[in-house]
Each structure stands twice: as structure tokens, then as C-alpha cells.
Amino acid sequence: MVSRVSGLNKLTSYSKLDKAREYYLKNTELDPQNPTPFYAVGSVNWLVLQIKSQPKPPEEQGQLVDEGLQNLDKAMEGLEDQGPLSVLGIAVNNLF
Prior knowledge:
Elements: H1 14-30, H2 35-50, H3 58-82, H4 84-95
């Protein structure tokens, strides 16, 4: 699951990140039981906020943070249904 979103750290332009975000938001609607796209939305939003060369306006930053946290919460809910090792697996995969 995490391998599908691990390439996100290679995206550095807003246009590519915005496109990825739209894709993952659509996937959350198509498959609301799958935690991966919810996790990806949170990850993409975090990456957008890390681009310091062209920072987003403060209001938009706040919206991205709120949306990202909401989606990460949904991802964790989905993983809790699969057992505690699923949550641990995502954490370990993110370290490597």
C-alpha cells in the first residue's frame, strides 16, 4: 500500500502535486474503504506545505492542514479495522 505513494516525495512542483491530490481525492470517493488514498491526500498536502520557494497563502495552508489531518484520520480508521500491525507496517515503511 505505501509503495503506491512512496514516489510522492519525488514530486516537487505544485502542478504535479495538485494533480496527484485530485487523483487521490477521487480515489477516496471511489473506494472509501481503502485507507491508501486517504493517507496519500494527507501526504500530498504535507508535501505542498513543504515547498518554501512559493508558499501558499496562510488561509490555503490552513485548509490543506485541516484536509490532510481529516484524511489521515480516515486512513487510520481503515487501518485499525485491519489490525494493529497494519498501522505499524505503515509507520515502518515510511522510515525506509
